[in-house]
Specification:
The chain has about 260 residues and is mainly α. The protein has one domain. It is about 80% helix and about 0% strand. It contains 13 helices and no strands. It has helices at about 10-25, 30-40, 45-65, 65-70, 80-95, 100-120, 120-130, 140-160, 165-175, 180-205, 210-225, 225-235, 235-255. α1 crosses α11 and α7 packs parallel to α9.
Length: about 260
């Protein structure tokens, strides 16, 4: 593992600060923290696990912020937590047993896929608002949503960037149209997916704790103190910045191979 020297710690903190700022407006902060840890000397699997653990506390804070909407949610929708936990654990297990050279080859494709998902966020949200709002769908739709959520959760436990978008789409299929409530359920399910992955990564000693501490502090500071700056810049501008960064990172890892 790399030493947490005078250069390493400030760079890790800065990346996490920017990720917290971005997450407070647009999401997608993992697209910064994960590659930064690789450039700082961690192998790709350890970087992925460390990034997940470092940014997870911010999800808990978001769940608390959405507590009113979560209390108002239909009880049946909480069944989506079951495939979230199962899939998150399965994805974390897959990461642990993926050979390092295989995961290294997958990195640019994973970053590119996450960036494309992130790009689709606004169009899909506009579609969700304009979609049929005739009411919640039947149990057959819920069964399909459970299977879809399982697949999302496996991806989330394995890599995790941009998982919010497909979850919003699944909730729309179930007939939800209140974006605040949909976001609250998205945060809850994402917290469950990453939470079980965090437990697995920590119990199997897959994380580099000095970076977890530094990045955790940076993400909290960025999410709290950077929100005002992000709002002044504007959500659309932040999204464009994340997209440019995502494509740039994907290209850099393609050439790095």
């Amino acid at each position: 593992m790399p030493a947490l020297d005078l250069l390493h710690a400030p760079v890790a903190f800065a990346a996490a600060f920017l990720a917290g700022l971005i997450n407070s407006v647009a999401g997608g902060g993992t697209l910064l923290t994960f590659p930064t840890l690789i450039w700082l000397g961690l192998n790709s699997v350890t970087a992925n696990a460390t990034s997940t653990v470092a940014v997870w506390p911010g999800t808990l804070a978001s769940c608390w912020g959405y507590r009113r909407e979560l209390r108002a949610a239909e009880g049946r929708l909480l069944w989506l937590l079951v495939p979230s936990v199962i899939g998150g654990l399965a994805g974390a297990w897959l990461l642990r047993f993926t050979p390092l050279d295989v995961f290294d080859r997958l990195i640019p494709y994973l970053i590119l896929f996450a960036t494309l998902l992130f790009m689709a966020q606004n169009p899909v949200q506009r579609w969700l608002k304009a979609a049929d709002t005739a009411g919640h769908r039947s149990g057959g739709w819920l069964a399909g949503a459970l299977v879809f959520q399982l697949l999302i959760a496996v991806y989330g436990g394995y890599f995790g960037a941009a998982i919010g978008l497909p979850m919003l789409a699944a909730l729309s299929v179930l007939g939800l149209n209140d974006m605040h409530q949909m976001n609250s359920l998205k945060v809850l399910m994402g917290g469950a997916i990453n939470g079980v992955a965090v437990v697995y990564f920590v119990s199997n000693r897959m994380v580099f704790w000095p970076d977890v501490v530094v990045m955790g502090a940076g993400a909290i500071a960025g999410g709290y103190g950077g929100a005002g700056l992000a709002r002044r810049v504007g959500g659309a501008a932040v999204r464009r910045i994340v997209i440019v960064i995502g494509f740039g990172l994907a290209l850099s890892f393609f050439f790095r191979r």
